Amino acid sequence: xxxxILAMLLCGGVLLGNTLTAFADSxxxxxxxxxxxxxxxxxxxxxxxxxxxxxxxxxVTLEATSVSGPGTKYLDLRRKSGLVSYGYGEVAIYxxxxxxxxxxxxSDSYFFIGRGGNAGSTQHISGKFHNH
Length: 132
What we know:
2 helices; about 130 residues; about 20% helix; four-stranded antiparallel β-sheet; 9 strands; five-stranded antiparallel β-sheet; alpha+beta
């Protein structure tokens, strides 16, 4: 009887572990659009629109699947803490692909600031954000 219970607990733990791994690896959806205006200085700030991501310390990757608008775009990953925010680097986005950052703290207050692109245009980036 003890062996049956132990086997069931181990089997349940393996199944639960696989489910959690698949969920954590599925990524959070990212979609942002901004206008650059005639002066080319338009930005989008996730903290102002309330778009935050929950990340654990370590490597994070944006898998950009759709990038449109002329010119180079830049994404700055930041973490809000009280009245200040901490930057984790700005990455130039040239097209679809993988873009990486490294974060030092687990928090549910990470956000992007997007900027760049040619003046007088609309910029768009979408994809999935993974925490590894």
